[in-house]
Amino acid sequence: MLEAIGLDDEHTAIYRLLLELPSADAAQIAAETGMPVDEVARLLVDLEGLGLAARQASSPERVVASPPSLALRPMLVESERRLTAAHAAFVQLSEIYRQGAALRAAPEVVDVVLGPDAVRQRIAQLQASASERVDVFVKSEVALLEAADNVEEERALGRGVRYRTIVETGVIERPGFLDAARAATAAGEEIRALPEVPTRLFLADGRLALLPMRPEGSNQVGGALLVHPSGLLDLVTAVFEAFWQSARPLFTADEEDAVSERELLSLLVVGLTDAAAAAQLGISVRTVQRRISDLSERAGVSSRFQLGVEAVRRGWL
Fold it and tell me: Domain check: are 148 and 162 in the same one?
């Protein structure tokens, strides 16, 4: 709640508890919060240093909370001052960058990012700076950034940024992928699949594109190309749009978590085998085959290809 002024959840929890009590010692706070006593003692020292708590003169082992109006207001005013100064600097630096970008020669429309850590940092920065949309290609090789580690995506979705992600069919076979994809879809992300996409890609608001690269024969990303506004960026954007139009949705945001015919058909249409579809859906291969047989009978077809065509025609997908 108070991260903006440098307090994490543990500090905030202890300060809130102190506000509710006349006074308390480390053992009492530890009993109330479930934290170890030595950890509480360390956090209390931090709060004292910030002026949010003080020792009782009569009982130095006990602490009392400082009034928020006295302790927090100066911190908030200082944070606002720094934010105002940072915004002014941002405007000035953005104008300097804009003027420099206008002078870029053709070879300068692409920056080279070296090293996997630097690539991950640029991915986080692109997502953090996006205000409207992030478009993504995900290849089936070893992931550069695991979904659980991509905190900036969750934050961006939370502030209303639209995500459009195209994954290769092989990605769907990763353990736990569908569960993560369902959660992302519920948060507003659109996910589609194709047998293959041309490259890894992060495209933010149509103004910057990052193409992670890997050496030939290696699954490890060694660097990336950062593409600035230019004809090349226009080409990258057009390529994504073309692939997006031809990709198949995995499922829609209003689907329930229960295994549905739409979800099964989506997996089969993008090329998963019966075994892979069964593993992702948490059902047996026999159940998958039985459902496919039932669907084929209802559609009046005899092959997987015909089932896919008929499913699209009938609006099952």
Answer: yes
**Mapped to the 3 state alphabet, what secondary structure does the chain carry?**
CCHHHCCCHHHHHHHHHHHHCCCEEHHHHHHHHCCCHHHHHHHHHHHHHCCCEEECCCCCCEEEECCHHHHHHHHHHHHHHHHHHHHHHHHHHHHHHHHHHCCCCHHHHEEEEECHHHHHHHHHHHHHHCCCEEEEEECCCCCCCCHHHCHHHHHHHHCCCEEEEEEEHHHHCCCCHHHHHHHHHHCCCEEEEECCCCCCEEEECCCEEEEEECCCCCCCCCEEEEECCCHHHHHHHHHHHHHHHHCEECCCCCCCCCCCHHHHHHHHHCCCCHHHHHHHHCCCHHHHHHHHHHHHHHHCCCCHHHHHHHHHHCCCC
- 278 domain-assigned: yes
CA distances from 87 to 4, 90, 97, 124 (A): 15, 5, 15, 20
pLDDT tens-digit map of 153-206: 888 888 888 999 999 988 887 877 877 887 888 778 889 988 889 888 999 999
- The answer to whether residue 254 sits within a structural domain is no
**Phi and psi (nearest 5°) for 131?**
-115, -20
CATH of the domain at 240: 3.30.870.10
Work out the average pLDDT over 112-123. 86
The DSSP element (H or E) to which 168 belongs, if any, is strand 162-168
Residues 116 and 209 in one domain: yes
230 plus 302 within the same structural domain: no
Domain that holds residue 184: 109-249
pTM of the model: 0.53
| Residue 22: CATH number of its domain | 1.10.10.10
Tell me how many domains the chain contains: 3
The residue from 103, 130, 158 where one domain ends is 103
